[in-house]
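Annotators were shown the component list below and the corresponding predicted structure, then asked to write short factual statements about the assembly.
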Amino acid sequence: MSIAMPVPDSETLAKRARIAQALRAIVPGEGVIDAPEALTPWESDGLTAYRQPPLMVVLPETTAQVSAVLKWCHAEGVKVVPRGAGTSLSGGALPLADAVLLGLGKFKRVLEIDYEDRVAVVQPGVTNLAITQAVEGRGFYYAPDPSSQIACTIGGNVAENSGGVHCLKYGLTTNNVLGVEIVMMDGEIVRLGGRHLDPCGLDLLGVVVGSEGLLGVVTEVTVRILPRPETARAVLVGFPDAEQAGACVAQVIAEGIIPAGMEMMDRPAIHAAEAFVEVGYPLDVGALLIVEVDGPAAECDFLIGEIARIADANGAVTTRVSQNEAERMAFWAGRKAAFPAVGRISPDYLCMDGTIPRRRLPDVLRRMEELSQEYGLRVANVFHAGDGNLHPLILYDANVPGELDKAEAFGADILRLCVAVGGVLTGEHGVGIEKRDLMPEMFSDADLKQQSRVKCAFDPELLLNPGKVFPVLHRCAELGRMHVHHGALPHPDLPRF
Amino acid sequence: MLEPRDAADLAGIVADAAASGRKLELRGGGTKAGFGAPREAEVVSLAGLAGVVDYDPAELVLTVRAGTPLAQVQALVAAEGQMLAFEPWGDPGATIGGTVAAGVAGSRRVTAGSARDHLLGLTAVSGRGEVFVAGAKVVKNVTGYDLPKLMAGSWGRIGAMAELTLKVLPAPREVVTLAARGLEPAAAHAAMAAALGSNAEVSAAAALSDGTVLLRVAGFAPSVAARCAALPGLLSEHCALERLEDAAPLWHRAMTGAGLTGAVRWDVHLPARAAPALIAALPAGAEWAMDWGGGRLWVCCEAEDEAVRQHAAGLGGEARLIAAPEAMRAQVPAFQPRAKGVMALEARVRRAFDPEGVFATGRFAEDADADAVSA
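Structure shown to annotators:
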C-alpha cells in the first residue's frame, strides 16, 4: 500500500450534508447514495488492494444531470471521480474520501445502429459485449475485446483506451471510436468527432480517449462496427522455451502475417490454467503459443498451414490446429481463465501490464526470473505476444505482513525493466494510481508538464479524478509560466537564410 | 528560411521566436503551402532533420526524422515487404513529418485508419521551445495522454515534430481491383456499403463521377482469389463486377481528387450515406470523386461561395478548402468552423503547447481564437 492519495480537503468533508442535498436536487430519488454502509460496494475498482469509500455516489440518468452535477461541484470546488463498471486494473476509478463518485451505470441504451455506414451510437454505460450483442444478428461486432468485456462499459473503454487479445489486427478503442459527447468539469457539454472520418481541427477526441477520466465525463460514444469474419481458427503450439516461441512470433510477422490474436503463456501460467480448466494444454513445454487467424475460410486454411510450418522451423514440440469451433474455444478457455487460475494457486496476485519490444523478451524473462528469486515471490506470465504486451502475474499473500509491499516493489522493478529495454509502463490497463509514481521512469519533467498543461486546458482547477496518472500535481497557473531568455539569440551559429 | 539541423537547434529557434514575439511557419517539403490563408511568417524548414533512426521490421515499428522524404520512407518499408497502412500520398518533395502533420491518408483509410492511428510516438518542440517526447516506440501503449493523436493533423500548430515513430504493417502480397460500371451516386454508395459491410474484407472502396465503382481486395493469394469469387454474389443486387487490370490511375483519381478541374477544391468528410445527397446539391458544373466508401468526397467547382460547406454541415459532415484563389483563401477558413465550445477548447489546447502563439501564423482563421484565450 505504498501509493499515497492526496490529503482529503477538510472543508469538503465538513459540508458533506449540503453536497448531498444539492446533488439530490439535481438527481432525485435513489440517485444519490450517501449512507456510510451503502458506500462499501463502491470503495474500490479492479485494483482491489486499494479501498476508499467515496464522499458519496451520484448516479445520474441524463447528460443534463451529469452537466448540472459537474457544474455544481465545479462552483463549489468539489472533486469528482467518474466511474463506469469499476473494472479498472490500475485504480483509475478508485474513489477519494473528499470526491463525489459519478457513476454512469444508468446510461445503458443503444441509441442508434447504422449498418450501412457501420456505426453504432451508444450510451457510456453499455457494456463492451452488449455492443456486439446488439449488432451480431446482422453479422457485425465491435472489435476491441478486453477480457472484462462482459462487465466493462464502453465509457470506461474510452477513458482507458482499452485493448484486448485482438488489438494487434483490429486496434485499440481509439482506433474504433468516431465520436464522443463529453461533459467537462465546468458542466459544458461538447461533442468531439462525429460519424465521419478525420474531422476538421485538432484531434481532441484522440486525446480524450485514454485520458483516464481526467479530461471529461463521457456521456455518448459513436463506435465503428465491423462485419464478423467468416471464420476463425486457432493453433496451439508448444515450445521448449520462450526464446523459441518468441522467434516463432517474430517470423510469423516477418512473413507478413498479422494474426487476429497471438498469445504466449509461460510454464507456470500453463500449469495453473490447465489445472483449472483442463483443456489439454501440454504440460511438458516451456512456452505455449495460441495463434488465431480469422477471415475467409480459404485464408484461414492457408495461414494455418503457414503458421504450422513456421512453428516447426522454430522448434515446436507440439502443434494442434482447432478442428471445430468447440476446440478453438477450448484453446482459448485456458488463456482466458489464466487470471482466475492463478488466483487458485495463490491467495492474491498483482497483474502487471508493460509492453516491450518483442526482440527483448528472452532478456526480460530471464531478468524477471532473477527478480522472482530475489523477492521470493513467484511470477506467472501471459503475454500478448504479437504486440509485445506482457502481463506478469505476481503471486503473493496479503495476509503475510509486508508481502503486498514486496509484490508492489517487484512489480515496479518489472515495469522499470520494461522501460529500460525500450518499452512502456502500460500497454492497456492504464496508469491510474498503480503506475502513477513510475511515470518519471518513462517521461521527463518537461514531458509530464506538457501533458499536465493539456489537463489544464480541460480542467484548470484539477477537480476531475485528481491523484491519478500524474505523480506531481502542478497548479495550472504555475505551469503556464514561461521562462524565456530575452536578449542574445540562443543559437547565433545557426544558418539563417 | 531557418534550417535547424537537430531538435536542439529547433528548440533554440522556437524559444527565440517566443521570446521576441515572432511567428514561425513549420515546413516539410512545402508541398502544401497553398493550404490555408495567405500569411507572412518566418519559415522553419525541417528538411534538414532527415534520416531513419531505427527500423526493425519484425517489431512493426519505424522511427524516422520528420524531414525525411515520404517517398524515401515508403521505399524503405516496401523493400521489407511492409507499408504505411494509412496509404499516405503527396507531391514530390513531401516529407513524412508534413504528411503526418497534415493528417494525410489514402484510400485504405476506411479500413486501416489514418495517420493519427499509426503515429505511435514523437519527439517534438513545443511553442515554448521545449523538447518533449510523447507516446512510445512500441505498438501498444496507453501510458500518459495520447499526444501523438493531437499532433497528427495539427498542421504544425502545437509543436514541431523532430522525430516520429510510426507503426508499419506487412504489405499485402496480392492486390486485385474489382470494378462496376454505370452506377449513379446513390447506387455507387449502396454497392460500396454492401462490399465494406460484407465479410469479403474489401480494403478500399471508391467511386468516380463516370459511374465507375472500385473495390480493392488485398491479402494472400488464396484469400484474394476466394474473396474475388464471392463478391459478385454478395453484390448481385447492386451491380455486376469485373476484374480491372491497371487500376492504379483510377485509384489515384479517387484518392487525391486528381483530374478534377475548377478553381476551388473542397475535401469533404461526411457520413458515407450522405455523399449522394451532397452530390445532388452541388452547383452546376461541379466535379467530384468519392473515396472511403463515400466518406470522403473531393469536389471541384468554379463557384467561390461556401455552398458546399453549408451542405456538408447540413449532412453531418465538414468541408476543408483545399485550393482556391488567394482572395478566397483570405476570406474563407480552410477548416469548417466547429461548435463554439469545441473551438474554444481547441484554442486552450493550442495555448497549452504554444502560450505565445509562435505557431499561430494566421493560416487558420481560428488562430485568432487562441490570441483571445491568452489575452
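Statements collected:
1. The CA atoms of residues 453 and 481 of chain A lie 11 Å apart.
2. Chain A touches chain B through 108 residues (CB under 8 Å).
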